[in-house]
Amino acid sequence: MSDSSHSGGETPPGSGSEPRPETPAAGTGGDAAAATAVAGGGTQAPAVPARKGGLRRPRGFEWVLVGVAALIAWKLWDWRGSVTGPGKTTTAPITLVSADRDDLACAFGGTAAGKYRCEFDANAKPWPNPPAPTERLAPYYTTERQLYLIPGLFEQSALQKRYSMDTGNHLQRDQQKRFVARCELRLLEKVEKLKTRWLRGGDFNDAEGAWVAEPKNCTVE
């Protein structure tokens, strides 16, 4: 006698003969999955585009950089303005060799601060009454190529020692090691027209304007 539960030809659950969902063909990727979801009545999620070029820094970071750059620019401008004017003081790194004591000279027809003069007059002729070493102006450049007229620079004790060391060893100019004298300079007045000489016996040439500045507290580096 046959079981009536099987008389309709139905396949019993768990028998392994029930229909199975189709597996998407290899290579169809997300398109096949999306098509299956649509066919089944589902809602397809919007595709998320891949980000190119790696992670982007937050926009706030860019504003921080802009702020730092603006602060640095303001400080530089403030420093520039703070050292230009009679009575102002600045620290200057002056590039030198010991031979500069005798080689460097300027030509200017006037007197600065009532007592300082170049070794030569406006026509590059020696004065009949030359200035004393402590009152004689000479041209010097800083490491930033700023020109100053400084009286008695080599009368500063640190530079006297360096000069004595180099001349005591009988070193010629091309044998001397260049050094930096870091000095406090007090600005007195600006000379607009002058001539400079950079080697003893050399020619004088026109130079741009330069501040006359008194040195103090010089150190040698």
Low-confidence stretches: 1-19, 21-42, 78-82
Distance between the termini: 118 Å
Strand content: 15-25%
Shape: globular
Structural class by sheet pairing and helices: alpha+beta
Q: Could you walk me through the main structural features you see in this protein, from its secondary elements to its overall organization?
A:
This protein is α+β, with helices and mostly antiparallel strands. It has a domain at 89-220. Helices cover 23% and strands 25% of the residues. The protein has four helices and nine strands. The strands form two sheets. It has a six-stranded mixed beta sheet with strand order 1-6-9-5-4-3, covered by helices on one side. A three-stranded antiparallel beta sheet has the order 2-7-8, with no helix packed on it. It starts with 28 loop residues before the first helix and ends with a strand. 20% of the residues are buried. The model is unreliable at 1-19, 21-42 and 78-82 (pLDDT under 50).
Task: Name the descriptors.
single chain; 221 residues; alpha+beta; six-stranded mixed beta sheet; three-stranded antiparallel beta sheet; 4 helices; globular; disordered N terminus
